[in-house]
Amino acid sequence: xxxxxxxxxxxxxxxxxxxxxxxxxxxxxxxxxxxxxxxxxxxxxxxxxxxxxxxxxxxxxxxxxxxxxxxxxxxxxxxxxxxxxxxxxxxxxxxxxxxxxxxxxxxxxxxxxxxxxxxxxxxxxxxxxxxxxxxxxxxxxxxxxxxxxxxxxxxxxxxxxxxxxxxxxxxxxxxxxxxxxxxxxxxxxxxxxxxxxxxxxxxxxxxxxxxxxxxxxxxxxxxxxxxxxxxxxxxxxxxxxxxxxxxxxxxxxxxxxxxxxxxxxxxxxxxxxxxxxxxxxxxxxxxxxxxxxxxxxxxxxxxxxxxxxxxxxxxxxxxxxxxxxxxxxxxxxxxxxxxxxxxxxxxxxxxxxxxxxxxx
Length: 360
Known about the structure:
Elements: E1 2-6, H1 17-20, E2 27-28, E3 31-32, H2 35-43, E4 48-53, H3 58-65, E5 74-79, H4 87-93, H5 95-98, E6 103-107, E7 110-112, H6 117-125, E8 130-136, E9 144-148, E10 154-159, E11 168-176, H7 180-186, H8 197-207, E12 210-214, E13 219-221, H9 225-238, E14 255-257, E15 260-262, E16 267-268, E17 273-275, E18 278-280, E19 285-287, E20 290-291, E21 295-297, E22 302-304, E23 307-309, E24 312-313, E25 318-320, E26 324-326, E27 329-330, E28 335-337
Parallel strand pairs: 1-4, 1-6, 4-5, 8-12, 14-17, 15-18, 16-19, 17-20, 18-21, 19-22, 20-23, 21-24, 22-25, 23-26, 24-27, 25-28
Antiparallel strand pairs: 2-3, 6-11, 7-13, 8-11, 9-10
């Protein structure tokens, strides 16, 4: 089998971070987001991987993810042609690489805990034509949703219904056989102008053998800042204990509690408290600060006299404030400073990008 990962799009809900970064390489526990689905795909026995990217981003994505050798796989990058026309169109765009193949289609911004091997194994063992993973959600109108016959078999899948026929969302794991491209030719763009993957699945339900599995673990679409931060926390919970290591000298006076990883060259002052799970990169300076659970800190970050918890701090950021930072995304090279240290002292001085959110 082969695998196709969708890694395009503009991720407007994550701006301003995504003005300069493809969402799919945003660091989560200090690894690019796509590192985790690639790892799961390879663990499921699939080593030929195609990644669909935005026009002009092949080199950019390759710099972050490489050629696949790190994972024992091969990665090929394919530019999306014809604009954003829906998930089914993403697959159709890769037809020359997938035609005649059985393949896994994985949405790169979906974080799934646990293995996907059982899905792949069942798809192969039962020689299904299509298989989908479903998850019980509170807000099914935001997703593609499954509708069932009274006997529990699939009737159809429908995209973002106003009146959802069930609480089961179609997650970002799909398995298809070679008939996908025949199915794609039978569907028409939806009212929003997209070729919906749910319409292709419905075609399969009506014309082929389709299986489904309910995800009993945890699944997250990281489309918003809050979801991204929550996904970072759950990834850290899912990391093996051996993933956490301290590769620098830490003063005995500093308090290190729980699972903590600290990279080479990082300097921790004696008056710091770091309470895991926490991942800190290389060549950072952490002084007189508290770093709380579910925080990931990139390389070359400076944090002084600050409390940080449940946040993602990108590389090269500088934080020097007596305030407590929680549930936050701090971008590359960003600077946070206590207003009392700047002039004039009668107010706050801000440089805020488009679509930013600031709480003072």
